[in-house]
Design a protein that fits this description.
Two copies of one chain form a homodimer. Chain A is of the alpha/beta class and about 350 residues long. The first copy, chain A, is built from 13 helices and twelve strands. Chain A folds into three domains: about 55 residues, 434 Repressor (Amino-terminal Domain); about 140 residues, Rossmann fold; about 130 residues, Rossmann fold (3-Layer(aba) Sandwich). A six-stranded parallel beta sheet of chain A has the order 2-1-3-4-5-11, with helices on both faces. A six-stranded mixed beta sheet of chain A has the order 7-6-8-9-10-12, sandwiched between helices. At the A-B interface, helix 4 and helix 8 of A face helix 4 and helix 8 of B. Chain B binds a DNA duplex (16 and 16 nucleotides) through helix 2 and helix 4.
Chain lengths: ~350, ~350
DNA sequence: GTGAAAGCGCTAACAT
DNA sequence: ATGTTAGCGCTTTCAC
């Protein structure tokens, strides 16, 4: 059926040159006469030659390392999902002679991010994957990468530099818009509580800002008379959360709709469980185990998930493809699907 | 950091045996003394040896072919999505010396399925991927495959034979249940129209039966007084569809809820477009281009999609893994996520 | 500029 | 039962 694959040997024979010269042409190395170059190129076109990547890899035996820069996390937190994807990606890249090394930092400590950047560079990476939490420091870092000619890929959030190889993340504004549409679909929404996290934002980029905007816009467009309430809770003081919520909702007994724009909707489930009579309609984000549990038990109505595993896996895969095969990513900005999870389909994600 | 990869050469040296013998134990080939076997195994454990698959492939230069048995389709139909996954899968398997050949059949013509099966066997496949539409004929076919020792993977639907290597598909019952939950969420549903397709079922397995069951069960559990109406349309007579629908809904003016269990919800959009005043709530299945269009224009409320591309891609990938590396699939029955698509997230799938 | 040859890690055919 | 060897397709060094 398929005619036998052509190899550089075939090309060498047909052009009357040697494998060595053919190889030189293939890799645009210097020291080839125009004539030979043209001859080789012609035969390549004619026979539709495609190199055997694995033979090439075998012969090169080059070791490359991709460094992944990620926030530290506690079990069950968002970044754990990302790490799963890292591991998958590392797994399949190892077949191609690409190792993956993780360097983590404290997302609340800018100094630790600086240290992590140095560590990353010290590993002499062929490529870098990073989730940028500190805007200015990240700019400094990617600038260094550029100088060194090291390609990098953003995940989760991107900065508007023009040098990144690719970005894998969620369309944040739209995710907020979607969130509102789910909350308000076929409903008469007069009041909504947006529960937020107290953050010490030290020049940190807050990815939930865009999301909140999208949410607010949807509500403004579809329920202009709806009033939006902001309520802040502090994840570091879990014991106070219930009290805060009790107080707030006692003061606003008419509110039935609740949204939260970060991954920690699970923080309010204890409160929700105490008020089944209110039949709150609650939408949150991200498929953390604790969130899924709340979803299945009916405390949370919907979760919008963004496949952090896929983001990470695809980032590594794109970078590997680039490093090993020289393939540019087919698109630079890659937005992940926003999965709508309910208690009835969560099982299968 | 990482110590140099161990190779069979290392193992040969450490055991005092030759590469040949090491290779024999690696592949459980006969003709190795217990003693040598044990020695080699020990060193392998100690050094954590992992074979270089690509070197192995290079040396083997074995050509394998996976045959995919699929229904023919018109542009825009469900199976076109499956084919996309086939192509992706074929692409990455080609790197591993595995070719993919498609054999298609007319899903309404049992004889053409028989012919396709013969064609498939004639290609002497190393493995087969199939979407079984004709129950009995499929049983005959997979029986032959078993006799020949050819592994096969079901996609879309599976038969309860115990010999398949893996299955990739949707949890059909649950998808119906989910469908109903979306349709009825926060609603007072008194009447629902289930629009169905006239089928000449010639011993054909109808995958929508389970789905309908799931749907009916949800309604029975949550809205016991709801009445369900069946309405049949004929896709081969598109001109009659509108009239059929007009007549039916004129006779049942109270119905606002519509569900359809196959991939052809687009068939009723022309009707829906004529009755914006009814504000129908409509849920259908599968991300066909025509369906997505209807979703975005607001005629369809929700689509439940099952990632047919992923089914196909993963089926091929699992089979390739099995053929090349000897890896059994980590799970035999693989249910794809059921994606809930609305006009606000459809863009990103 | 170009060719020849060795070698990457593994397999398979042929010896012994 | 085990060792030897040639070779898979490609890269790289060294010689000319």
């Amino acid at each position: 059926m398929e005619t036998k694959k052509t190899t550089i040997k075939d090309i060498a024979r047909l052009t009357g040159l040697s494998k060595g010269t053919v190889d030189r042409v293939l890799h645009n190395r210097e020291g080839v006469s125009k004539k030979s170059y043209a001859k080789v190129m012609e035969v390549i076109k004619d026979l539709g030659y495609e190199p055997n990547v694995y033979a090439s890899l075998l012969a090169q035996k080059k070791e490359r390392v991709i460094v992944v820069l990620l926030p530290k996390y506690e079990p069950g937190e968002f970044w754990e999902l990302t790490e799963e994807g890292i591991i998958e990606g590392a797994d399949s890249s190892s077949n191609l002679g690409v190792k993956v090394a993780k360097v983590d930092y404290d997302q609340y400590d800018i100094e630790s991010f600086r240290t992590a950047c140095s560590k990353a560079l010290a590993l002499e990476p062929s490529g870098v994957v990073l989730a940028p939490m500190f805007r200015n420091e990240t700019l400094v870092f990617v600038d260094k990468l550029n100088t060194l000619g090291i390609p990098f890929v953003y995940i989760d959030t991107k900065l508007e530099t023009n040098s990144y190889l690719a970005y894998f993340g969620m369309p944040t504004y739209q995710s907020g818009y979607l969130c509102a549409s789910i909350l308000a679909d076929e409903q008469q929404v007069d009041e909504v509580a947006m529960i937020r996290i107290q953050r010490d934002k030290f020049g940190k980029s807050d990815p939930t800002i865009n999301r909140r905007e999208g949410f607010i816009d949807y509500i403004a467009e579809h329920s202009p008379d709806c009033s939006l309430h902001n309520l802040f809770i502090d994840p570091n003081k879990p014991k106070e959360i219930d009290a805060t919520l009790e107080k707030f909702f006692a003061e606003h007994p008419g509110i039935r709709y609740i949204a939260m724009f970060n991954s920690r909707i699970y923080l309010i489930t204890s409160f929700l469980a105490k008020h089944p009579e209110k039949n709150y309609r609650v939408v949150g984000f991200d498929n953390l185990a604790a969130n899924i549990k709340a979803l299945k038990s009916g405390l949370v109505t919907c979760l919008i998930a963004q496949r952090p595993e896929d983001q990470a896996r695809r980032a590594i895969s794109a970078l590997t493809d680039y490093l090993v095969f020289g393939h540019e990513p087919s698109s630079r900005d890659n937005f992940m699907p926003m999965d709508i999870l309910t208690r009835y389909n969560a099982e299968y994600y």
